[in-house]
Amino acid sequence: xxxxxxxxxxxxxxxxxxxxxxxxxxxxxxxxxxxxxxxxxxxxxxxxxxxxxxxxxxxxxxxxxxxxxxxxxxxxxxxxxxxxxxxxxxxxxxxxxxxxxxxxxxxxxxxxxxxxxxxxxxxxxxxxxxxxxxxxxxxxxxxxxxxxxxxxxxxxxxxxxxxxxxxxxxxxxxxxxxxxxxxxxxxxxxxxxxxxxxxxxxxxxxxxxxxxxxxxxxxxxxxxxxxxxxxxxxxxxxxxxxxxxxxxxxxxxxxxxxxxxxxxxxxxxxxxxxxxxxxxxxxxxxxxxxxxxxxxxxxxxxxxxxxxxxxxxxxxxxxxxx
Length: 322
Fold this sequence. Notes:
Helix 5 crosses helix 8 (214-221). The relative contact order is 0.10. The chain has three domains: 3-163, no CATH class; 168-233, no CATH class; 237-322, no CATH class. The longest helix is centred in the C-terminal third of the chain and has 21 residues, at 301-321. It has helices spanning 73-76, 98-102, 134-137, 152-163, 171-182, 185-197, 201-208, 214-221, 236-249, 252-256, 258-269, 275-284, 287-295, 301-321; strands at residues 3-8, 24-27, 34-37, 47-52, 55-61, 92-95, 122-125, 140-141, 144-148. It is an alpha/beta fold. It contains 14 helices and nine strands. The strands form two sheets. It has a seven-stranded mixed sheet, with no helix packed on it. A two-stranded antiparallel sheet has the order 2-3.
């Protein structure tokens, strides 16, 4: 059973800086003692200031080969954009290092240097998906709990419990937060379409004729209003009507996937067929033609659908002209 041997809280202000977060890529050989490091973590951040029992103390952060990977390079640029007033307070949980030393698991600082076994003021962060980066980011760790575990197995089980039902937001959920954080019309339309129809974000992009980049969505979610967000190729109402018709012509399952709408988009990109023509074709195309489009083997399913649709539109126009 683990014991919390020290609990500390403080009302001191959290001082945030944009120092880059440590980046250590561990490689485990048979002795578990090889670690490579990058230059992501400045030497001064091998230690942090933590308020323990009301006293500010300098603590060395220890990593093991089981620690979480640090921020990706693409994410590090956002550190300077963080508004510290919008960061929630964290409880920083640490493990006493002795269980790792007894188990023969080496401890390393954020520069990849092995920490001597007799070094004091060493703590191992108990990381979660939400706060792993905050141990190195916050200048002062003001809510600290230090746990003494009976074994590394117990430590790992606690970590496993913390992770049991944690997850990152889905693409659609991230789009919704970005829309709410910025009021961007494109993001709002994509989110509403996905929620109203139950389709994934990638399909919603296709229905609205846009492509949203994950990096852009991440920035938008913290309130950075990007000027390069694409403009909708069709309105939300048009996309909903198109989705409704694809459900009727094909199946609701087909309508949620990308290949049917991508086929339609590829037909429209030729410039020969507008949305009204496509809608008319979808309403009147014979069921056997639809079945053939879904089942025929011509390489790529959306190409099969596009070919059948174009053929039917040509036949439809020829009949009108006759």
